[in-house]
């Protein structure tokens, strides 16, 4: 997941960064593809919320990728990594929770 990939503390025994990157990219691409193909079936506000979630993923990914490029070049990278982590750990869950609640409402389980 993006959260596991971008967390500042990487635990021993966890997947490697490269494996986490591959999984995150695969999952994000599948989500984007599914949403783009089926967007018309979502209520307008729900579609907007999903687009906001995807935007937060893209922002986090951009910041994280920049941090990794800077890290490899020997430059200071903590600000970008922190920005990615903050978005994925604080902002994204709020949007995700809103979407989950809407789906629960739609299927009748609150």
What report would you give on this structure?
With 110 residues, the protein is mainly α. Helices cover 79% and strands 0% of the residues. The chain is built from four helices and no strands. Helix 3 packs antiparallel against helix 4. The longest helix has 30 residues. It is elongated and about 50 Å long. The mean pLDDT is 91.
Total helical elements? 4
Largest sheet: none
Order of helices and strands: HHHH
Structural class: mainly alpha
Shape from CA axes? elongated
Low-pLDDT ranges: none
Number of strands: 0
Q: Which range best describes the helical content: under 10%, 10-25%, 25-40%, 40-55%, 55-70% or over 70%?
A: over 70%
Strand content: under 5%
Task: Briefly characterize the structure.
This protein is mostly helical and 110 residues long. It has helices spanning 2-6, 17-38, 44-73, 78-107.
SSE topology sketch:
Blueprint: H1 2-6, H2 17-38, H3 44-73, H4 78-107
Helix pairs in contact: 3-4
